[in-house]
Write a structure and sequence with these properties.
The protein is an alpha+beta fold. Helix content is about 25%, strand content about 25%. It has 3 domains: about 1-75, RNA polymerase II/Efflux pump adaptor protein, barrel-sandwich hybrid domain (OB fold (Dihydrolipoamide Acetyltransferase, E2P), Beta Barrel); about 115-205, Dihydrolipoamide Transferase (Irregular); about 215-420, Chloramphenicol Acetyltransferase, CATH 3.30.559. The strands form 5 sheets. Strands 9, 12, 15, 16, 17, 18 and 19 form a 7-stranded mixed sheet that branches. Strands 1-8-6-3 form a 4-stranded antiparallel sheet, with no helix packed on it. A 4-stranded antiparallel sheet has the order 5-4-2-7.
């Protein structure tokens, strides 16, 4: 009996490109075996098989765009259970990225997509590279076997396009009228090694670039006295260890941030597409930057206003582990209204986190430190937590940012207020 394997619920994403087909006709697959890899603007996700059996027909190709319910495979059900037959090894690992042409096209220009790459003979890594540097593979002359497009062919197009862009004057500028960074052959000055960037960085890089170019960033720096809070946190953490989880400062900051967001709703808003209104959100989903072997990911604590410190702590541990293990689902990274990026375990005194659009603010944390604080009569040692609040100046002004930080400092300085 044949069965259709379809794209499951992938959250709010629609028309997501297929970057890699992970199986071949004749493969034996088990339930939950990955069958295709999709790439949204936020993450790469593997789609698991909902059935076990032998692949009879593959209904999608690399470069196709799919949505929930689209048929991926036709399989012949295997009543005896799925085997662990090895899958066909995929295309070669990508090499390091060559110098790019202009960073981004002007806003009016249509971006290069892989919608028409379906008939082009090229590996997944070459397709991904072409999308990233905005080269249309249909216009590349493949020099590989049977006309296969190689990475070198794409790089050749890039190099030939750069002089043409430079001679065009205004055309040499990228988005926002910014001139491109000239390519440099560093090998002329000494030994070099080209190391390919992790996939997560390749995906998040353009989004960060877009946010930096489109949002007028301002960063407000302050400090919160967490001396008493940290004593209480350590007591909670001692008990939590016995129960199999940890209580970190981030749990308290999430709880305090929700209260501060309620007091200053502008930080929990987004700018309306027409540019002259703010979208006020009456829900509080807090994203947090998680450091993983493949780069930063941003899981989201949903409805943080309805959760206590213990529940938030447990969810932080669960989501962080899923991020490190590469098991985060797309829904786990959607819907954030405010983001926190913590470098406290590493160091630093302050930094400028980039706003995670369409949010309008992000809070950065660096390592807390003991410092002498004047109490009106004498200097006393207090544990101070640096705060770096970056915000979209179109939605938030400096005075409001200062008030937000004062509110946040007050909450972190008196943990009793977190229970209000």
């Amino acid at each position: 009996m044949t069965t259709e394997v379809k794209v499951p619920d992938i959250g709010d994403f629609d028309e997501v490109p297929v970057v890699t087909v992970l199986v071949s006709v004749g493969d034996t697959i088990a339930v939950e075996d990955p069958i295709v890899e999709l790439e949204s603007d936020k993450a790469t996700m593997e789609v698991p098989s909902s059935h076990a059996g032998v692949v009879k027909e593959i209904k999608v190709s690399e470069g196709d765009k799919v949505s929930e319910g689209a048929v991926i495979l036709i399989i012949e059900a295997d009543d005896a259970g799925a085997g662990d037959a090895p899958k066909e090894e995929k295309a070669e690992a990508p090499k390091a990225e060559a110098p790019k042409a202009a960073p981004a096209a002007a806003p009016a220009a249509a971006p290069v997509t892989d919608a028409g790459f379906g008939k082009v003979h090229a590996s997944p890594s070459v397709r991904a590279f072409a999308r990233r540097v905005e080269v249309d593979l249909n216009k590349v002359n493949g020099t590989g076997r049977k006309g296969r497009v190689l990475r070198e062919d794409v790089e050749k197009v890039l190099k030939s396009a750069a002089p043409a862009a430079a001679s065009a004057g205004g055309g040499a500028q990228g988005g926002m009228g910014i001139p491109p960074i000239p390519a440099v052959d560093f090998s002329k000055f000494g030994p070099i090694e080209e190391v390919d960037m992790p996939r997560i960085k390749k995906i998040s890089g353009p989004a960060l670039h877009r946010s930096w170019l489109n949002i007028p960033h301002v960063t407000h720096n302050d400090e919160a006295d967490i001396t008493d809070l940290d004593k209480y946190r350590k007591e909670m953490d001692t008990q939590a260890k016995e129960d199999g989880y940890r209580v970190t400062l981030l749990s308290f900051v999430i709880k305090a941030s929700v209260s501060a967001l309620k007091a200053h709703w502008e930080f929990n808003s987004s700018i309306h597409p027409d540019g002259d209104k703010l979208i006020k959100k009456d829900f509080y989903n807090i994203g947090f930057a998680a450091d993983t072997p493949n780069g930063l990911m941003v899981p989201v604590i949903k409805d943080a206003d309805r959760k206590g410190l213990v529940e938030i702590s447990k969810e932080l541990m669960t989501l962080s582990k899923a991020a490190r293990d590469g098991e985060l689902k797309s829904k786990d990274m959607q819907g954030a209204t405010f983001t926190i990026s913590s470098l406290g375990g590493i160091g630093g005194t302050s930094f400028t986190p980039i706003v995670n659009a369409p949010e309008v603010a992000i809070l950065g944390l660096t390592r807390s430190k003991m410092a002498p604080v004047w109490n009106g009569e004498e200097f006393v040692p207090r544990l101070m937590q640096p705060l770096s609040l970056s915000y979209d100046h179109r939605a938030v002004d400096g005075a409001l940012a200062a008030r937000f930080c004062v509110t946040l400092k007050g909450l972190l300085g008196d943990m009793r207020k977190l229970l209000w």
